[in-house]
Amino acid sequence: MRWQDGRESDNVEDRRGAGGGFRIGGIGGGGIGLGTVAIALVVGWFLGINPLTLLGMLSGDGTVIEQSAPRQQAPAPRSGAAQSSGQTDAGARFVSVVLASTEDVWSRIFQQSGNRYPPPKLVLFSGSTPTACGYGQAAAGPFYCPGDQKVYIDLSFYRTMRDRLGAPGDTAQAYVIAHEVGHHIQNLTGTMRKLDTARQQLSERQFNALSVRVELQADCYAGIWAHHSEQGRNWFEQGDIEEALNAAAAVGDDNIQRRTQGTVVPEGFTHGSSAQRMKWFKTGMQSGSVDQCDTFTAKNL
Length: 301
Hints:
about 50% helix; four-stranded mixed β-sheet; globular
């Protein structure tokens, strides 16, 4: 990606190094394996709550335990002079540029329908941080919290993508941000509110199936970002889109299940298969149209 000359967003809040002062049981102590983290991660992403809220309710063997934590105020964002230096700041500037591009794309789309787009904040943190959805921690990966309309990310997740999921590259990293912003679009349009209501009326299997459609729509919205940002900036180079597709495949439920439990159980999918995630990203990328992202009425996902 030719992102270096891009505009940076004003909606980035830097909490790195602030220190959350709170540790979720099991994380960092070797008590919760990658499989449990993956399960909490996908469920948390769909529910719109911090996945570590779920992880904090799990003991080392995966059984539910009771745990509560005091609600804390988020630390004040630091100034640019207080930010750490080196590669971390290069990463921070990258996510700021990508966030700015999502603001440009979705502002134009909302304007075309006569609406104003209120962009989300993106919070950079290290280790753990308080949110309106509970405590966030690096082990859970990036997530969106509808309670405060913020995207949370510890930049160390990108190393996990590269080293553990086999999804390297800046376009793969940009896809992650665009996907979380896709959840913000769903929050603004009322999709998450409707799903929260429906959740009480669905069986686990029905809920999982609906969760898949939510996540695939966010992938499609990420594709819309790629379509319009490329038109406006011409910043994708050869192989960049393949990087994004590879990232979508890497976080497919079948790939995660195969890695963490050695077998694939489609009934337990909450995000969609690798093929489905790539398909819907490509749908948004090729069409650039929100109308083409209606995963809820699609018969063939």
